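Researcher: I'd like a candidate sequence for this fold, 668 residues long. If you have to choose between options at a position, lean toward the conservative one.
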């Protein structure tokens, strides 16, 4: 597996080493950094440990990875490589372990897309805490421990944990790490390694961007423009309003180009310090991370076992990072930032050529996208305005007039990739923001380009089904979600249908919807059912709202208060309330007819009942008024991910199992 040496004369292998035997084969007598990950090791730019390992390697550091260490035996996985020269890195993996392990109804999942064979149980709940405690017990204070990844990042300050149904302190209170590195880590990991290699102690590195640490309370300054002092733990643990007020500051500072330092006292002795983010990565910086010599393969240690998450992304290409949508339930902007960091066309084409050269490539790139498919290369027209902006979303409540929504550079990339030998088609598997592509700018050239984008997208880049995410139909719910009015979905559906007819295509538009979101009541779901029934849509891609740390919707769910207005907001919390809402997704299923009729009558909404079932309630048959032109939507293939980055749970089987789970809960 030898690949020689890199420009720093560091011996390299085809993969980063994962065992003492592999380290020995490289002739190393020390390791600079050892990364522990809750995911299997796949040497691909979509897997965080591989990216950070390759970035460190490109700077001359010797890096090893310990994927999915066994925490239940004699801890040999934590001992086998010894202590690194610089630091241990710890991450739960590409997604929050609790989202990975449990459904929205706290039912344990039976699989794990980031594990060989999709096998569940290869990582603990909260691996950030578990791995860090083990390393601290084994190595004491002799080696710095740094945590990162989405699980740690979203828990950097006091947060509501849905799975414990409790407010928790910063994860650093539970995980005895020296530092937490939040967000995307390429810049920080090199600055940290260089500082430690130069002889600095980690306790001396207090002002590095995108880092969090526990410090003596005496170091907390007075509040000013550069220092935001949050309500302390002693206050938020007693007052939900204090927690809601904190969140507003956290979100605003996280979305600023130049944020303030955030402080939160955790006890009489200690305070959490959160340094502001790095500036967005330049095109050169993000290209450098994606252009590293990834094999794009799982490590040979897995002996060819299928890793579902890898199978889903192995022929996909990520063109940019960041998202300025600011959806209330989504963690992407909190983790990757609001500002878009885009790769160059040349870097994307290089990766497309690498994908086309893979032995199992059949000519189809599964996704040429990003967190949102069509934000590539978008930024403010006048960036000095962006410097001062506190808006969490550039799209809500209206598209910012300073946002350049020109899709021409994105089309240019599509054309360049599709022109490559061996590429038959590039599909767009990421969610498309139709409020961007349909937005009237008043500039005839841009409006024409964006109309062309919509047509080319539908005609040439849909693998039969185009995913979009209206999420709801009712204006007040959409406003809380920070999503566009449902009228825009109608408009995009018309564009989609016209393009299909023009090009002789028979494709489906797949809308995603959420029930039980804060602000949504049962009657709102009934209205949703009526609107989707009128469109002959038998929904399948649906799910209950899942509260995850550091989102606006989660703060409303926990506190019952909107952090920006101070107003109280209703949220469905009990299993009965959740099931009452979700049944309206399946108005066409006879198993729900009786409940729906009873509920609407009890709400005195015979008008909605008549609109939902204009020909009366059928007495038999599994479906009501199934349109011949559109069958019930098929479940997405295993491993397809939603906006939270997890294998999509919006499937009929999961829905039925969760219903049974709720019914059992009700009986108790």
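Model: Candidate sequence:
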């Amino acid at each position: 597996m030898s690949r020689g040496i890199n420009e720093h004369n560091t011996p390299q292998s085809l993969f980063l080493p994962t065992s003492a035997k592999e380290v020995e084969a490289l002739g190393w007598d020390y390791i600079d950094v050892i990364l522990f990950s809750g995911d299997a090791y796949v040497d691909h730019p979509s897997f965080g440990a591989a990216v950070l390992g390759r970035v460190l390697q490109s700077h001359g550091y010797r890096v090893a990875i310990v994927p999915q260490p066994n925490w239940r035996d004699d801890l040999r996985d934590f001992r086998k490589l010894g202590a690194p020269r610089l630091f241990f890195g710890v991450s739960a993996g590409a997604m929050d372990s609790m989202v990975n392990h449990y459904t929205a109804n706290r039912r344990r999942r039976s699989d794990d897309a980031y594990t060989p064979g999709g096998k569940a149980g290869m990582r603990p709940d909260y691996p950030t805490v578990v791995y860090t405690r083990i390393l601290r017990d084994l190595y004491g204070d002799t080696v710095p421990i740094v945590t990162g990844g989405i699980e740690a990042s979203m828990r950097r300050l006091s947060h509501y944990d849905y799975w414990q149904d409790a407010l928790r302190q910063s994860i650093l209170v539970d995980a005895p790490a020296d530092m937490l590195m939040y967000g995307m880590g390429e810049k920080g990991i090199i600055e940290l390694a260089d500082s430690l290699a130069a002889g600095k102690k980690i306790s001396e590195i207090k002002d590095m961007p995108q880092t969090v640490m526990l410090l003596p309370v005496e170091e907390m300054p007075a509040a000013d423009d550069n220092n935001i002092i949050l309500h302390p733990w002693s206050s938020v643990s007693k007052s939900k309003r204090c927690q809601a007020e904190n969140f507003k500051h956290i979100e605003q500072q996280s979305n600023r180009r130049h944020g303030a330092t955030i402080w939160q006292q955790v006890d009489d002795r200690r305070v959490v310090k959160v340094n502001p983010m790095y500036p967005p990565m330049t095109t050169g910086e993000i290209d450098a991370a994606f252009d590293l010599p990834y094999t794009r393969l799982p490590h040979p240690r897995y002996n060819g076992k299928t890793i579902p998450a890898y199978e889903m992304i192995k022929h996909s290409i990520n063109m940019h990072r960041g998202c300025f949508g600011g959806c209330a339930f989504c963690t992407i902007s909190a983790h990757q930032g609001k500002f878009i960091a885009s790769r160059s066309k040349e870097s994307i084409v290089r990766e497309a050529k690498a994908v086309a050269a893979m032995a199992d490539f059949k000519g189809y790139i599964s996704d040429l996208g990003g967190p949102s498919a069509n934000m590539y290369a978008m930024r403010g027209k006048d960036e000095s305005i962006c410097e001062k902006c506190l808006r969490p979303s550039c799209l809500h409540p209206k598209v910012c007039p300073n946002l350049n929504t020109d899709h021409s550079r994105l089309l240019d990339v599509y054309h360049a990739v599709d022109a490559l030998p061996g590429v038959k088609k590039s599909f767009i598997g990421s969610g498309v923001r139709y409020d961007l592509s349909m937005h009237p700018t008043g500039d005839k050239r841009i409006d024409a380009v964006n109309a062309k984008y919509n047509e080319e997208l539908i005609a040439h880049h849909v693998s039969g089904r185009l995913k979009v995410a209206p999420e709801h139909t009712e204006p007040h719910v959409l406003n809380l979600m920070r999503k566009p009015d449902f009228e825009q979905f109608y408009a995009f559906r018309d564009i989609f249908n016209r393009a299909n007819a023009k090009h002789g295509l028979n494709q489906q538009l797949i809308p995603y919807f959420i029930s039980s979101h804060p602000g949504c009541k049962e009657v709102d779901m009934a209205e949703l059912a009526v609107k989707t029934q009128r469109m002959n849509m038998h929904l399948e891609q649906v799910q209950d709202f899942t509260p995850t740390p550091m989102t606006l919707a989660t703060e409303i769910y926990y506190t019952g208060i909107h952090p920006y207005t101070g107003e109280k907001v209703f949220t469905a919390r009990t299993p009965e309330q959740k099931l009452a809402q979700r049944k309206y997704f399946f108005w066409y299923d006879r198993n729900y007819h009786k409940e729906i009729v009873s509920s609407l009558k009890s709400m005195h909404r015979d008008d909605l009942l008549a609109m939902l079932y204009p020909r009366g309630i059928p007495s038999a048959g599994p479906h009501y008024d199934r349109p011949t032109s559109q069958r019930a939507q098929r479940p997405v293939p295993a491993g397809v991910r939603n906006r939270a980055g997890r294998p999509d749970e919006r499937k009929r089987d999961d829905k039925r199992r969760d219903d049974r789970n709720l019914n059992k809960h009700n009986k108790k």
